[in-house]
Every structure is written in C-alpha cells, then in structure tokens.
Design brief:
The protein is α/β, with parallel strands linked by helices and about 300 residues long. It is built from eleven helices and ten strands. The strands form two sheets. A seven-stranded parallel β-sheet has the order 6-5-4-7-8-9-10, sandwiched between helices. Strands 1-2-3 form a three-stranded parallel β-sheet.
Length: about 300
C-alpha cells in the first residue's frame, strides 16, 4: 500500500483541543473532521512531527489556518465532493418540515393515528443564503418542486442566476421566503448572521433550515423564535457546540427538527471524500502537492515540514 500506519482516535465525533493534542504525538498526517486544531495545539510539542491536516469535507473553520501555515503544516480539503449529498439532505429537511413527517412518525411510534396537516411545496418561495456550489445544487432540486428561488450572497454569481435564482437583499429574502436554507461558510462575517432581528423579519409560517455551520445562527434567539412562534419551525443539522450536549435546551425546543451533522453522510459520497482525503496524504508523502490545499502559501515558507520533489 502507501506505507502508512493507521491509528484511530479513541472516540467518534469531533475532538476538543484537549482531547486532540495528546493524540498527535508521532503523527505525520491527520484526516480531520471538525476537530479543534487551535494555534496552541498546532504549536504543541506533540504536533512537532505533523506535516499535513487532510480535512474530510469542505469547511475548515475548526483549523487555525494562519497558525498551521506558520508551523509549516499543509492543510488539504475535499471541495466539490459533498455538494450533491448536502443538497439532497437540505431538501429532505425542507420536505420533512413542510409535510410534518416527523410528527406523523412520532404519532405512529406512540401507538396513535394522529395525522398532521402540513404545507404544500409547489409555488412557495425558497430563500437560499449562500449560492455557491451547494446552494446551486439546492436550487437545481428546488426547481423540480416549482419553488420560486431567491438568493443572497456577498458575490452573486451567474451560475445561480442561470438556475432561476433572483438575488435580493437579506432583508427581502427573509421577508418573502416560505423556506430559508443556509449554505454559507462560517466566517467572522457570517457568525451570528441569523439573529433575533433577522428571525423577526421572517413570515410566521416560514421555516429555517441549516445544513451549514451552527454558529451562523444565534441559537438562543432561535429558541425564543420557536417558543414564541415568530416562525413555524426549523431544522438544524449543525450546532455551535458539537456534539450537542444531552441536556442542551435545543433538544426540548418545540417545532425543531434536529439531526447530528449528517447532511454529507451519503455512503457513496463518503467513499469519494475518504479517498480524496487519503490521496492528499499519499501525494504529500510521495513529495507531491495535494490537489486541493487551503493554504498554498505554505509551500513557499521556510517552515514547510514536507519535502517536495
């Protein structure tokens, strides 16, 4: 094979900085999920041998990229491979909310026969916040349901426009949409993007869907919005704190559908992403630059730990 010895972490799920640091001793490369690679972790003696962090997925907000570059560590990722799976899941959540699938399921599980009246999809308006590759994949699916498409993005792109997305201000999108789906990366600008003021602008019968990053939403404001019925409901697949604690108030918030950050977990997608993440390690070990690198400037740094041919 590739001549790599594989070591698995002692638990599944994202590792905190405290959990991660001791596991890095002797590691040349890591396939990372949402593990917390802070500046302190990257500068720790345990990480002295680390040459590559290969991110399983797209978002790298859990990795301190400037610190990695300073330490000479390459950060690779797998863009473009999760789009379809996440878009499928976002639409699945939209449909589940609109047609109250979960309520019907719970009724049957509890020995009841309490049918739930939901909302029709056709002719409604979907607001897509973040119209990059995943947002566009959602738009493609939404067209099949004859949804009117509104979009908001810091850089409106012609590809989304060609799919029928009408770009509007955030306020207009929130005020006119029956469904609002989030597809932005977590940045300082997008953190807390959806707070009390934005939730109050939404229709009382509107639904909010988040398959991006939890911290994009002010979760306390969302709890209040659902408890006081500013909006009809929400579905969250991402949370500010993951794993979500068992006693977290979101778990008991009404009209809220929760799933454990699994939007990208299609088996076929998982195989492709795992192969790409592993390929980055094999490439760097062989002296080649990985195909997708977050911090290409590291290759010009005297601190670079990898040896390139």
């Amino acid at each position: 094979g590739a001549g790599c010895a594989l070591i698995h972490p002692p638990k599944c799920g994202p590792l905190t900085a405290e959990e991660l640091q001791p596991l890095l001793a002797g590691m040349d490369a890591v396939v990372a999920s949402m593990d917390q690679f802070t500046a302190a972790v990257l500068a720790a003696k345990e990480a002295a041998q680390l040459r590559l962090i290969s991110r399983w997925g797209v978002g790298y907000d859990a990795i301190d990229i400037p610190a990695a570059t300073q330490q000479g560590i390459v950060v690779a990722y797998t863009p473009g491979l999760l789009n379809e799976a996440v878009a499928d899941y976002a639409m699945a959540l939209l449909l589940a909310l609109a047609r109250r699938v979960h309520e019907g399921h719970l009724s049957m599980r509890q020995g009841q026969w309490a049918s739930s009246w939901g909302h029709d999809i056709t002719g409604k308006t979907l607001g897509i916040i973040g119209c990059g590759r995943i947002g566009q994949a959602v738009a493609t699916r939404a067209r099949g349901f004859h949804l009117r498409l509104l979009g908001h993005d810091i850089a409106p792109n012609p590809e989304a426009k060609s799919l029928g997305v009408q770009f509007v201000t955030l306020d207009q999108l929130l005020a006119e949409s029956d469904f609002v789906s989030l597809h932005v990366a977590l940045t300082p600008e997008s953190r807390g993007l959806i707070g009390e003021a934005q939730l109050r602008k939404m229709k009382p019968k509107a639904y909010l869907i988040n398959t991006a990053r939890g911290a994009i939403i002010d979760e306390a404001a969302l709890r209040r919005a659902l408890e006081e019925k500013w909006i009809a409901g929400a579905a969250l697949d991402a949370f500010a704190l993951e794993p979500l604690p068992a006693d977290h108030p979101l778990r008991s918030t009404p009209n809220l559908l929760l799933t454990p950050h699994q939007a990208s977990f299609g088996l076929e997608t998982g195989e492709r992403v795992s192969e790409a993440a592993a390929r980055a390690i094999v490439d760097l070990q062989a002296g080649r630059k990985p195909q997708w690198v977050v911090n290409p400037e590291v290759f010009k740094s005297p601190a670079l730990r990898a040896t390139l041919k």
